[in-house]
């Protein structure tokens, strides 16, 4: 696995810590670690388990958080991020993880790895905690404006993911909209729903879902454009944080409730763990000829180790091959009007 | 105040209960109650306080939840909803509250009351609980696709509302986007931000905010299109519900934590109250020549009484007059390109 050592607020220390933690769950992993060797060597000396399975590939260059995607693409050819992606392209690594600049990572990954045949744009996907477990949502910001065909492609990719990686036999797919009725919503979501209703693919298409269906776990795969998906994800994160803050305030509001909180602490910690965003860290860029996972830039080693776990899951389940096959099936027979557009 | 007695899942009983509760806070209110007299009379006999300040206006017709907006507009001319709106138009009532079909209410209100000069479309606005108090968000679903000028109008309406109704001296306004940087996001939000940055109006324009800024209370007024706003609102509701469910599960997970929960019950009830969606009930349709408030269809009397309270606040603060004046100021001097489009 290829790792961008220099991305993220607390890189590279956070990255190496995450690598160490990930080895408990995925002991067979071997790493190519791209970054500034003088900074990485002492870290590996402190983490001997990581050192034993890691090869450092030195580069002094790193993409900055403030860099624009186009700029990073032009001038970041020797950056740790770019070289880590190249390793996947060159077959040296099975997947790449970076906690760096999201826009730059998406641009570089798309440029180097290219999209799968028929897939116009890769989508950023992540798990969402739900009442019944977890759902996959995509896109989360890779594509700000999406047409119906983009949404259909996201549905195919998400469904394959849920089947292959999560092992669900017959995952359900819903499109995020402002109402469950067929007549409501944007033109693009209505068209996408029509295509998915008519498809021969074994997609269990639920139809439209609303914002509150995300946390309710109404469907296994939530399809939306990157603008809406990004805002929904962050709104959910913000609301969970608000609720947690209110809970803390409430429990501190009297001596008796503080005692109650003390007694309930194990339970409250369990709640905290269930809602912990680090557990859901690791956004997958689906639809490329290669595996690329984005770790949150502001989190810690535990979160990074989760992103490594997500990458390992993707590697072992050949998701991309299945996306390719399913997408081809969607448009087989007479070539579909929209497929032709997407391929052009 | 004009009340649609027949809208909402538990109408008309829930409606009359809400009217009774609202009289504690707004004792001077007088009601025109539109609906099926044979069903309303016994309810008023049970609620004598309401009966003393209410005049029933009988109609057997009611808009159904399943009715499409256009259909309700055509065939619902004698519905309780329509007659209640007419009462505002005719100057018989200062505002109207309905818990009925949202699409029908918006269509009828827009048709009967008309938009304010220069305002192309009314917007649905509601309060959101935040870390620091509450913020106003609009639009929440009245307008599925919005251009830059629509968003600018929402900003003006929201800012006036926050100043007049909430009494904030200098409310801050932000546009919901996928990043805080100027270069990110949809064309429409970027254009709207440019217009708001350049305006002479006393709008404290914060710039872009992200989904997690909603609950953080980063700005007083959150501007977005109706598609995104509706999904953000419902995602937040769903997440709060999920968190509440997880909390309940956690506290029941052991005997000791159950005891802890018992001790902390007053604090937990306080939390429940702070997050109670009934407290934030009452979505305002801003930008019309008249006050129209939508109450949630699936809630109870307490929630309906809150919607009546929201209507009373709007009535006493002449929001519409100020929106008209501010919007005129936004485009005074040389007529603005976009304003001309909006007025055409």
Topology, please?
2 copies of one chain form a homodimer.
Chain A: E1 2-4, H1 13-25, E2 31-35, H2 37-46, H3 48-52, E3 54-58, H4 69-75, H5 80-89, E4 95-98, H6 102-113, E5 123-130, E6 133-138, H7 148-164, E7 172-176, H8 187-198, E8 204-209, H9 211-216, E9 221-223, H10 226-251, H11 255-263, H12 265-275, E10 283-286, E11 291-294, H13 301-316, H14 319-330, H15 337-343
Parallel strand pairs in A: 1-2, 1-4, 2-3, 4-11, 6-9, 7-8, 7-9
Antiparallel strand pairs in A: 5-6, 5-10, 10-11
Structure overview:
Two copies of one chain form a homodimer. Chain A has helices spanning 13-25, 37-46, 48-52, 69-75, 80-89, 102-113, 148-164, 187-198, 211-216, 226-251, 255-263, 265-275, 301-316, 319-330, 337-343, and strands at 2-4, 31-35, 54-58, 95-98, 123-130, 133-138, 172-176, 204-209, 221-223, 283-286, 291-294. The first copy, chain A, is an alpha/beta fold. Chain A has two domains: 1-113, Isopropylmalate Dehydrogenase (3-Layer(aba) Sandwich), CATH 3.40.718.10; 119-284 and 319-344, Isopropylmalate Dehydrogenase, CATH 3.40.718.10. In chain A, strands 3-2-1-4-11-10-5-6-9-7-8 form an eleven-stranded mixed sheet, with helices on both faces. In chain A, β5 (123-130) and β6 form a beta hairpin. In chain A, α4 (69-75) packs across α6, α7 (148-164) crosses α8 and α7 crosses α14 (319-330). At the A-B interface, α9, α10, α11 and α12 of A face α9, α10, α11 and α12 of B.
């Amino acid at each position: 696995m290829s790792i961008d050592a220099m991305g993220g607020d607390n890189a590279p220390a956070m990255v190496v810590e995450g690598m160490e933690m990930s080895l408990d769950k995925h002991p067979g992993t071997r790493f190519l670690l791209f970054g500034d060797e003088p900074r990485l060597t002492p870290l590996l000396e402190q983490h001997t388990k990581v050192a034993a399975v890691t090869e450092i590939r030195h580069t002094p260059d790193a993409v900055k958080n403030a860099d624009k995607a186009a700029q990073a693409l032009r001038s970041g050819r020797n950056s740790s991020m770019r070289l880590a992606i190249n390793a996947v392209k060159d077959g040296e690594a099975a997947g790449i993880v970076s906690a760096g600049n999201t826009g730059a990572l998406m641009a570089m990954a798309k440029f180097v790895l290219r999209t799968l045949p028929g897939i116009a744009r890769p989508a950023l996907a992540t798990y969402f905690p739900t009442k019944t477990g977890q759902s996959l949502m995509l896109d989360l910001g890779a594509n700000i404006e999406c047409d119906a065909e983009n949404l259909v492609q996201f549905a195919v990719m998400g469904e394959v993911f849920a089947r292959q990686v999560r092992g669900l036999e017959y995952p359900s797919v819903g499109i995020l909209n402002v109402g469950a009725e067929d007549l409501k919503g944007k033109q693009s979501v209505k068209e996408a729903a029509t295509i998915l209703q008519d498809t021969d693919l074994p997609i269990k298409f639920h139809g439209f879902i609303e914002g509150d269906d995300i946390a309710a776990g109404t469907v296994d795969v939530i399809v939306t454009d990157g603008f809406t998906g990004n805002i929904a994800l962050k709104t959910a994160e913000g609301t969970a944080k608000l609720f947690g803050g209110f809970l803390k305030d409430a429990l501190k509001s009297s001596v008796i409730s503080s005692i109650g909180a003390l007694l309930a602490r194990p339970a409250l910690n369990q709640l905290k763990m269930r809602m912990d965003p680090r557990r859901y860290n690791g956004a997958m860029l689906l639809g490329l000829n290669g595996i690329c996972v984005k770790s949150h830039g502001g989190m810690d080693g535990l979160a990074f180790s989760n992103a490594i776990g997500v990458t390992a899951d993707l590697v072992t389940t050949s998701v991309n091959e299945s996306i390719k096959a399913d997408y081809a099936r969607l448009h087989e027979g007479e070539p579909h009007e929209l497929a032709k557009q997407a391929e052009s």
